[in-house]
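Internal ticket - ligand job 249, 1,3-dihydroxyacetonephosphate:
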Amino acid sequence: MRPVIIAGNWKMNLSHAEATKLSRGLKNDKPKDGKRAVWVFPSHLHLPSVSEILDGSGISVGLQNFYPSELTAMTGETSPVQAEELGIKLALVGHSERRQFLAETNASCREKINFLLNRKWTVVYCVGESLAERESGRTFEVLSSQIHEGLKDIPSSLFANLVLAYEPVWAIGTGKTATPQIAEEAHAFLRKEIAGLFVGGETIAEAMPILYGGSVKPDNIASLLAEKNIDGGLVGGASQKLESFLGLL
Ligand code: 13P
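stdout (structure tokens):
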């Protein structure tokens, strides 16, 4: 049985006051049944306050980005070693906004994933095709290269802490959710790709949570989660307001 994970990517939204208020609300009001793992990814400047508020709440805090190195001279960057001081061991890698606007590539994702998995972090590796890629029939080719290049030569023993997020770029922040069928088709494909990476890879692939992201809302999450290969949501907009985050949960 794979866990159900609801992850909120707050992106570069929310002021410090808003992020801390939302964190307090989540801590107080999230369902106590413990049925779902809840993860949040705030801006770096908000990490100390959000981590302190959510300490003991069962909600995990993660990084949206980092530089894959121990402490070093790298102006403007954040090392996972610094985040570990706050108890953080969870990060996103390869979000489409970073691929599209900040020059992140499959190769740079690979370096980041490898660094974190070797430090026993949990990594959410984001993949997904653009609208042009889907319309030209290249969706599976793109997903396949994101998997093969982004995870190249990473030993299977490290895969237990890897989570995938399928985020079709055309569905992010557009209000256009992939239908559960479209998402399921991509998730099943991704699971097959993971299985094919190693001899005996089926067991690893079967255990790996694959989240869907792209205009997930309280009113469409249940139909997405009903699909066999969809194990949770990586949510932008709807995770940034208490009412809709609680609605997702
Ligand atoms: P939206 O939920 O706002 O479409 O964002 C999805 C996303 O990019 C999550 O990482």
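Auto-summary: The longest strand covers residues 4-9. The two ends are 19 Å apart (CA to CA).
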